[in-house]
Automatic annotation (TrEMBL):
Coiled coil: none annotated. GO terms for cellular component: nucleus. A zinc finger (TRAF-type) spans 43-101. The keyword Zinc-finger applies. This is TRAF-type domain-containing protein. The lineage of its organism: Eukaryota, Metazoa, Chordata, Craniata, Vertebrata. One of its GO terms (molecular function) is zinc ion binding. The keyword Acetylation does not apply. InterPro entries: ZFTRAF1, Znf_RING/FYVE/PHD, Znf_TRAF. Keywords: Metal-binding, Zinc, Zinc-finger. It comes from Gopherus agassizii (Agassiz's desert tortoise).
Length: 290
């Protein structure tokens, strides 16, 4: 894929893999509980056993690759600038997008569109309507941030670093899942579990991977405990997560949440987590007091 980032890796016998394939092999090995091996020579591969090959990276950067918009060939090293700034077919948006024009099209049609665009001649009243709609959308996006800020003024807030570690179920077909050691937040004992979850049955064959997780209260409580919780990148791992706030009322009988999505930005990122063995994140729990 033209857009996939180098560097490349090589096994101890010198066989090459691009970074994406390398991470995918490590993630697959984790799912199958096998040692990852080089597809060419079957020698062991791992992050510490494999190294970058700078000569190959340089050579590859000079190979021609195709622009996704105009289909012309460019040296890989020039492609990014071409696609961003120079390609006549790159996708652009009308300059009146700010006042609601939805037009999108190739760069070479942009000037023609903008000359004919009806948005600049709309009346104040028409624009007011459009701006109202845009405000609504923006407001929805802001809600997440506002909720985080209001949670931050709660009386009881706890957070901790959590480490998800890989385990196997004892079922006939064993499955990979993750669990953290017990930890204490807000003077209660908790555990987090996570599992690989995707639309297809067989996660080792699927390219689209997601993770979901649940929060489990291990302490006995006498009165219900209403909480908001959220997982974020911690200080030790570079995980790309879109923050999502979840709510749950823990009681003595109802002491675990459903599995909810761990909002990792995409399945490439998910493979990186699977390849990395342990997953380190930071958990926040906000206790809602009535
Ligand atoms: C924390 O819990 C223990 C027992 O579980 C209790 O003795 C202690 O008072 C609690 N501390 C706070 C600050 O609630
Ligand atoms: C994937 O896993 C399933 C069940 O765990 C197994 O039957 C299947 O052979 C595996 N496929 C590959 C390609 O490893
Ligand atoms: C958690 O809930 C289950 C099922 O409702 C219950 O059997 C168990 O005792 C609860 N655990 C604690 C620590 O309250
Ligand atoms: C996957 O997770 C979603 C929510 O994250 C859940 O609704 C769904 O049931 C899960 N699927 C499986 C197979 O666990
Ligand atoms: Zn182009
Ligand atoms: Zn326009």
């Amino acid at each position: 894929v033209a857009s996939f980032p180098f560097p490349s890796s090589q096994c101890t016998n010198g066989h090459l893999m691009c970074a994406g394939c390398f991470i995918h092999l490590l993630a697959d090995a984790r799912l199958k509980e096998e040692q990852a091996t080089c597809p060419n020579c079957r020698c062991e591969i791992s992050k510490s056993l494999c190294c970058r090959n700078l000569a190959v990276e340089k050579a590859v950067s000079e190979l021609p690759s195709e622009c996704g918009f105009c289909m012309r060939q460019f040296p890989r090293s020039l492609l990014e600038r071409h696609q961003k700034e120079e390609c006549q077919d790159r996708v652009t948006q009308c300059r009146y997008k700010r006042i609601g024009c939805p037009w999108q099209g190739p760069y070479h049609e942009l000037t023609g569109h903008e000359a004919e665009c009806t948005h600049p001649t709309k009346t104040g009243n028409e624009l007011m309507e459009i701006l109202d709609e845009m405000d609504q959308t923006h407001k929805k996006e802001m809600q997440l941030y506002n909720s985080i800020f209001s949670l931050l003024s709660f009386e009881k807030i706890g957070y901790t670093e959590v480490q998800f570690r890989p385990y196997r179920t004892d079922d006939f077909i064993t499955r990979l899942y993750y669990e953290t050691p017990r930890f204490t937040v807000l003077n209660q004992t908790w555990v987090l579990k996570a599992r690989v979850n995707d639309s297809e049955r067989n996660p080792n064959l699927s390219c689209k991977r997601t993770l979901s997780f649940q929060l489990i209260l291990k302490s006995k409580i006498s009165s219900p405990m209403e909480c908001s919780f959220l997982l974020l990148k911690g200080p030790y791992d570079d995980v790309k997560i879109n923050p999502v706030i979840y709510h749950f009322i823990f009681t003595s009988e109802n002491n675990e949440t459903e599995y909810v999505p761990l909002p990792i930005i995409d399945s490439v990122e998910c493979n990186k987590l699977l390849a990395a063995k342990n997953i380190n994140l930071r958990l926040f729990i906000f206790q809602i007091q009535k």
